[in-house]
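User: My collaborator sent over this chain with a note saying "see what the structure looks like." That's all I know about it. Can you take a look?
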Amino acid sequence: MSTSSKPSVLVVDDKENMRKLFSRILGDAYVVTEAADGEQAIAQLSSRAFDVVVTDIQMPGADGFAVLREVKHRAPETQVILVTAYASIPKAVEAIKEGAYDYLSKPFDPDEVALVVARALEKRRQGHEAAGLKARLAVAPELHGLLGGSAAMQALHGLLSQVATRDLTVLLTGETGTGKELAARAVHRESPRAAKPFVAVNCGALPAELVESELFGHAKGAFTGATAAKPGLFEEAHGGTLFLDEIGDLPLPVQVKLNRALQEKEVRRVGTTTPVKVDVRVVAATHRDLSAEVSAGRFREDLYYRLNVVTVQLPPLRERREDVPLLAMHFLSRAGRPEVEGFTPEALRALVAHDWPGNVRQLENAVARAVAVTKGPRITPEDLPPELNTARAAATGATAPGVRAASDSLAKLPYREAVDGARDSVSREYLSALMLEFGGNVTHAAERAGMERESLHRLLKRYGVRSEDFKRSE
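Assistant: Without extra context I'll predict from the sequence alone. Here is the result:
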């Protein structure tokens, strides 16, 4: 790694020996700049950006809090690590509440310094990734709510736009939750009928005895409860588009009348023989295989061919996994919790790894659930629904049960022991995630962590994380 590509760290301390110590610990992996006090640090911050700032709290003049405030004012994405004596730990905790990433208490272990700085750099990287994902989302290809930049979605956008301009019946097919109603609305909005009504009905949700009345209307007194004449959905959609969702669920007798309505471009209200002319474009949708339904005698062949003028297949989410991060960020942005900034890399990997049998609708529900339960600024694998357990385990790497048990017992320990225990737990989880990311390749993992290979080996040994447990089978 060339010097110019190394991350940058600003070390702020009024004691030269401490600055030199940090420079020796970090100098191989980072470009280290020193500042002898808070004023010098603030001057440095005004002229250039740093990835991480490591600053002592107690300094004459501008102290570590002043440096922290300047960093958060000028470059909020820069991560700040406070250095403090044991007696000043409460101040360090206060600084974390004000936006510092973490603190180091004196005396500290050089490997601990390297690990905390590496984690801070990873947090900054995650922030960049989240910002990048938001930027991609802002310019992501989208057709009236159908979001996705994958090749499959680009082909779908093009086909829908092309079909929309021709006043033909369209049959949308695809699994449940793939966005068939959004596709129908896109066809309508891209068509010359866009200024006219778009009327949607789920045929499978209508009671069998009311389907005909809902579609075609009824005359007063046509049946018990028909106290007044009522136009049907065909008449409501006159001049526009009628979307018949789950058309495969229509009863056979109604299929006969629907076929006639499409052929004659007129409907007869229940209880009358007077035809009513309608100018309607029909877009139908189903998750069923209608050709198989025809063979089984559950769907009329003549209606199938009348609907099947142009067929558009919507791809399932598992066939366009590259769209999952964009969709997840899109749903997060609509969730109403601006303090939740994004997803951890492990959570995104779990989302991408899942097969999503319920497709986009299931993903939307999963993100809504995660946003509701998360307690941090980023959604973690633990915030995801239980049905993602397999993908979640693959994303996080199953860590030792003792790690979680240790976390549960922290409250029973003295403060210093609790802090050390929590730090050990986070360190172990970080190292496990790092090994999972690189398949146990210590060299590549060390580059990501911003430390020497030997230092990472020592940390792995210290925390009982075995790189060979993460080796990927060829």
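A starting point for your reply to your collaborator: Residues 110-139 form the longest helix (30 residues).
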